Amino acid sequence: MKRYRNREVWDFESEMPAGVRGVILGLDGGTTSTVCICMAAERPGPCGLLSEPFPVLARAIAGCSNHNSVGETAAKETIERVMAQALLKARASRSVVQAVCLAVSGVNHPSDQERIRDWLRDIFPSHVKLFVENDAVAALASGTMGKLHGCVLIAGTGTIASGYTEDGREARAAGAGPILGDWGSGYGIAAQALTAIVRAHDGRGLQTTLTYNILRELRLSSPDELIGWTYSDPSWARIAALVPLVVSSAEAGDEVANKILHDSVLELADSVKAVVKRLGLCGEDGKGSFPLVMVGGVLQANRSWDIGKEVVKCVSKVYPGVQPIRPKVEPAVGAALLAWNCFMRDFANELVC
Amino acid sequence: MKRYRNREVWDFESEMPAGVRGVILGLDGGTTSTVCICMAAERPGPCGLLSEPFPVLARAIAGCSNHNSVGETAAKETIERVMAQALLKARASRSVVQAVCLAVSGVNHPSDQERIRDWLRDIFPSHVKLFVENDAVAALASGTMGKLHGCVLIAGTGTIASGYTEDGREARAAGAGPILGDWGSGYGIAAQALTAIVRAHDGRGLQTTLTYNILRELRLSSPDELIGWTYSDPSWARIAALVPLVVSSAEAGDEVANKILHDSVLELADSVKAVVKRLGLCGEDGKGSFPLVMVGGVLQANRSWDIGKEVVKCVSKVYPGVQPIRPKVEPAVGAALLAWNCFMRDFANELVC
């Protein structure tokens, strides 16, 4: 352990009792919040994986850690503080940490990974295994027991599809934000619903129950007022929050709402198919099996109009081996599982050597 | 003349020589700039209209006068200053003004018109005829010799279609901005081109020469860098400025660029058709003739891929009586012509009475 900025966040360690066995840290850092999980570094079960329920010792939460949003200094401070908090809650200190996986949004280039890994090296003892990834990786790992293989489709306010192969290749599709056409996202769905209201009002589109349902929700008396509402606040999440109304309108039989959801299914499926194709996740004959982990509000299976299920149907027409997974644990646990897997693999390799 | 705020802008009037005959003011106030034209209030030619070249005495220009953008006080100050400047340049004073037409963007409700008219009444002598309209009206009048009848399609950074009947009814379509689906606008065309580059890059779309042409223009080395470029500055005009590259790519045979332009033609034609239908501009049999005034960079006829011409083709399939007009004068002259027409009509009515 060398120089680091926030020495005081680790003050608790001097009062920590000895005796806690090895632990793993998994961190999922997004634009809204950052979650850190401290998990016991238990030995694998008979199939070589950790068995459920996972041995989570503690969970800590903090704000944004996307360096593009808050700057690198603030992002690092948040990450360091939330890791210290998770260890404190688990009554452990850095000396018993075996591996750390940071999965942080905004980490897009090997240079980002290298920079953050260097910084982590100054915080943790030299034996600690360090892994730095994009937050999509944690989402994937949350559905694959920490195995980095397959495709993850995230669709909340935004959307991105990311894929990984066991030999370390990766590919992405979408994730470029609303101006650059992420139409399958929650923002995309809701913006199309608002557009449909305007079009129905000025005579360019079919009449739709979206008009009544959305204007009532927003307490507006006319579609003309939508313009003021829309541009008064540029937040994408505020618009994406209207997705449940689009889904309920479609469920009640509205043709326009149904078309918007069907189009969004095609968009989301296109992203998955592009990633699967580029990585050859489906094997040479196109029929090989691969996991598709689905994460985010748009893909939740709590409605009769199930966008995630339709996406899988659409993908399976081309790639019948698609294995849909809706994770039961949060992405930070995925990051911890990933760190555990990598640690066990390295550990096994060292034993062989 | 009663109280008004900026008495000093009119100080020049005390030094103005007598003898200037009646004048008309026409003002086109937009979000980018405000132009005021001072025109001689000449008698009509044999057909009852002013003959070209129009008797423009002076032209003055100022900044934004959209009250939604800069607030009402600043908007009024800009409007008053630019009117005073036009009169000063024409060596005229308010006492010889016969009529004023303000055509200002952001004037959307009768209450806006009434408020601005009340304010103008405090500035000008009581005999002056005052007309307050939306800026689309000036654009229409610039193509119809000041007659308020027909449809105007504006497509620059944004787009809107506005129609007016001789008996005072009006209707609009589009004009709701990019979030609410103005896909035929310059912004819409360029955003779709950027989207096409991202889709080609991540495997969701066809390869396109837009990638090379636009990345070279923006001095970016990879489509990945487009994301940073796009979100670093939220100005719609900056994105819309890429339209000429989409047009030249289409002219060179690029399939993706051609599809974007064809889609934009359909969108723009839909706006026109919706307005024509709602107002019945085409007569009862749908074949009646009506003017379609086309304004804005997207509709300029300086290229072999002529978006405006294609829009007219598309509209004429449904409404064969469409009479396309590309105005030769600027909208502020349209506003002056409108004021002149209204003044002459009222003058004739008064003579009859």
Automatic annotation (TrEMBL), chains A, B:
EC annotation from Swiss-Prot or TrEMBL: 2.7.1.59
Record SUPFAM superfamilies: Actin-like ATPase domain (SSF53067)
Pfam families: BcrAD_BadFG
ATPase BadF/BadG/BcrA/BcrD type domain sequence ranges: 25-339
Highest taxon of source: Eukaryota
Matches recorded under CDD domains: ASKHA_NBD_DdNAGK-like
GO molecular function: N-acetylglucosamine kinase activity
Top-tier EC class: transferase
Family to which the UniProt record says this protein belongs: Belongs to the eukaryotic-type N-acetylglucosamine kinase family.
Protein name, per record: N-acetyl-D-glucosamine kinase
Species assigned in the record: Dioscorea zingiberensis
Organism ancestry: Eukaryota, Viridiplantae, Streptophyta, Embryophyta, Tracheophyta
